[in-house]
Design goal:
By secondary structure, the protein is mainly beta. The chain contains one helix and 36 strands.
C-alpha cells in the first residue's frame, strides 16, 4: 500500500468518539493520532463555520518516513455538523507530502464553495516559500488542481504572509517582502481578475516587519497588524494600519502606522491576534509583553478605536497567556487561557464587549503531564463553539476536536465562582512569609524553584483561621520561587523572592 493511501486510512479511522465526557462539552473526537512510538509532530490547524452551522476543519501533522529526506507532512480537510457527526471524512489537500505547511485558513464563497489557503515551503536547493490554494465545494469535493496564489514577481512569498477574502469576494494577500524584509506588500484581486493593488508596498521602514494578522471589514478596508524589530531601542513593538482595498494605494501613506503596544527599550511586545470585530469602529486584539519575572510573559486583551487607536479597554489575562478567541452571537468575546505556571490548566473565559468585564470563568481541563496546545477556535452564528487542540505524551500525539452546545451536559455554561483571594507578605521575604486568606479552602502549599523543581512543602495547621506564618521559608537560598496553592476551587501560583 502506498504512503498516501496509508495515511488516508489512518486519518479516517481516527475519527471516533473517545474519552471522558466533560459537562457542557462533547467528548473528545480524535482527528488524528500517531502510530505507537512513531516520531511525529502536529502542525497548525484551522476551523471555520459556514452559514448552515457546519464546522470545516483543516489540520496538519508530519512524521519521519525517511531520516535523510526529512519529515513528510499531511494537510487534511474534514467536516462535521453541529452535533459532531462526520459529514466529510478526512481528505488530502496537499499534492506532495514533502513540503512543510503553515498557517492554513478557510474562506467561504457564498453557500457553494470554499478556499483553503496555506503557506508551503520547498527546502530543496532553489526552493520557494509561497501560498497554495485549494478550492472545494461544501460537500468536500475538490474543484480543480492545487494552485499557487498569488504570483511571485519579487521572489519568495515570505513566511510572514496572510491571505483573506473580502465580503464581495476580493482575494487579498499581504506579506513581508523577503528581499527588503522591511516592506509589507499587498495583492488585491477582484473576481474578474483585475488588481487594484498588485504587490504594492503599503509599508516600508528601516527595520524588519513580521506580518502577524489581518482582516477585511464590512466597509471594504484592510486592517494589518505586524511586529517590528526596532533596533535603536533593542525592542520589539506591535504596529497596525488600515488601507482601502478597492482603489490604488496612496503612496504618501506608506510610512503611516499606529502603535498597539508600548515602545520600551530592551522589551519585546507583540500583537498576537486580531478579532474580526462586529463593529467596524472598534478593534479587538491580543498582545504579549514582559511578565513579572525574566521567565514569564504577560498577555492582554484590548479594545481600541480604529480611528486614532486610542484605548477603550484592556484586561490582563491570567496565567501563562491568552490563546485564540472569537466573538459570540450576543457580542461578547470568548476564548482560552493557560492557567498560572505549574497548574497545567486550560480555562475558558468570556468577556463583555467593549468593556472587557469577566462574565464567565470555567475550568475546561487539567491536562496533567501532557503537552497541550489550543490550535484553533470558532463560534457559529447559532452559538455552537468549536475548538481543536493537540495533546502529546512522550511520543504519543493526537489532534482533538470538541464542540459545545447549550443542550449538552447541564444545558448552561458552567460558571465557577471567583477564585479565593490570598495575600502574601512581605515579598521579598527576609525572615518569614505570611499567607492570609480563606485557608479552609487550601489543600496544599508547595514551593518550586524557577526550574520547576519542588523545594519545600508547607504544612497546614488545623484551625488556622485566616492567617499562617512560615518562618522556614527564609531558609531557602536567595532567589526567585513559585508558591503553588492547591485549593478546593483550583490551583494558582505566585512568584516570591527570598532575600536573605
Amino acid at each position: 500500500m502506498d504512503r498516501t493511501k496509508l495515511v488516508w486510512l489512518v486519518g479516517i479511522c481516527a475519527c471516533f468518539f473517545c474519552g471522558e465526557a466533560w459537562a457542557d462539552w462533547s467528548p473528545e473526537i480524535i482527528l488524528w493520532e500517531n502510530q505507537p512510538n512513531a516520531l511525529s509532530s502536529v502542525g497548525p490547524s484551522c476551523v471555520a463555520v459556514d452559514s448552515f452551522g457546519n464546522a470545516h476543519i483543516v489540520y496538519s501533522y508530519d512524521w519521519y518516513s525517511n531520516q535523510i529526506h526529512g519529515p513528510a507532512e499531511a494537510l487534511m480537510y474534514t467536516k462535521f455538523d453541529d452535533h459532531g457527526n462526520v459529514l466529510v471524512p478526512p481528505i488530502f489537500l496537499n499534492d506532495s507530502l514533502d513540503f512543510p505547511t503553515s498557517n492554513p485558513r478557510i474562506f467561504f464563497f457564498g453557500t457553494d464553495s470554499l478556499w483553503v489557503v496555506w503557506g508551503r515551503s520547498n527546502w530543496s536547493p532553489g526552493g520557494t516559500n509561497l501560498q497554495s490554494k485549494r478550492c472545494l465545494d461544501l460537500d468536500g469535493h475538490v474543484l480543480g488542481p492545487l494552485t499557487d496564489w498569488p504570483d511571485r514577481p519579487f521572489g519568495m512569498i515570505s513566511y510572514y504572509a496572510r491571505v483573506t477574502v473580502s465580503p464581495d469576494r476580493k482575494a487579498i494577500c499581504a506579506y513581508t517582502d523577503t528581499t527588503l524584509r522591511t516592506a509589507i506588500r499587498v495583492v488585491v484581486q477582484n473576481p474578474d481578475g483585475s488588481r487594484p493593488l498588485n504587490h504594492t508596498v503599503v509599508w516600508n521602514d528601516h527595520w524588519e516587519a513580521r506580518l502577524q494578522y489581518m482582516f477585511v471589514d464590512q466597509t471594504d478596508s484592510l486592517q494589518l497588524g505586524w511586529n517590528q524589530i526596532f533596533l535603536p531601542l533593542m525592542s520589539l513593538v506591535g504596529l497596525t494600519k488600515r488601507i482601502a482595498v478597492n482603489v490604488p494605494f496612496d503612496t504618501t501613506q506608506i510610512s503611516d502606522s499606529a502603535l498597539l503596544t508600548p515602545r520600551i527599550p530592551y522589551q519585546s511586545w507583540t500583537v498576537d491576534q486580531f478579532l474580526r470585530s462586529r463593529d467596524d469602529s472598534l478593534l479587538a486584539y491580543t498582545t504579549g509583553g514582559p511578565g513579572d519575572s525574566l521567565f514569564l510573559s504577560a498577555y492582554y486583551l484590548n479594545v481600541a478605536r480604529r480611528g486614532d487607536y486610542s484605548a477603550v479597554a484592556q484586561t490582563r489575562l491570567d496565567g501563562n497567556g491568552g490563546q485564540v478567541a472569537d466573538f459570540e452571537p450576543d457580542g461578547t468575546i470568548s476564548g482560552w487561557e493557560y492557567g498560572p505556571p505549574l497548574t497545567r490548566e486550560i480555562w475558558f473565559r468570556r468577556f463583555s464587549y467593549p468593556a472587557l468585564a469577566l462574565i464567565e470563568d470555567s475550568l475546561f481541563m487539567n491536562f496533567g503531564d501532557d503537552g497541550f496546545v489550543i490550535q484553533t477556535y470558532a463560534v457559529s452564528a447559532g452559538g455552537v463553539r468549536h475548538v481543536v487542540y493537540s495533546r502529546a505524551y512522550h511520543s504519543d500525539t493526537r489532534i482533538v476536536y470538541r464542540y459545545w452546545r447549550s443542550d449538552l451536559g447541564s444545558n448552561k455554561p458552567k460558571v465557577i465562582s471567583p477564585r479565593p483571594v490570598f495575600a502574601l507578605w512581605p515579598n521579598p521575604v527576609t525572615e518569614s512569609l505570611t499567607l492570609e486568606g480563606p485557608l479552609s479552602t487550601v489543600k496544599s502549599i508547595v514551593i518550586y524553584n524557577i526550574l520547576g523543581q519542588q523545594v519545600m512543602t508547607l504544612a497546614l495547621q488545623s484551625q488556622a483561621g485566616q492567617r499562617l506564618v512560615f518562618p522556614q521559608v527564609s531558609a531557602l537560598p536567595s532567589g526567585s520561587y513559585f508558591l503553588h496553592l492547591e485549593t478546593l476551587r483550583g490551583s494558582s501560583a505566585q512568584k516570591i523572592v527570598i532575600n536573605r
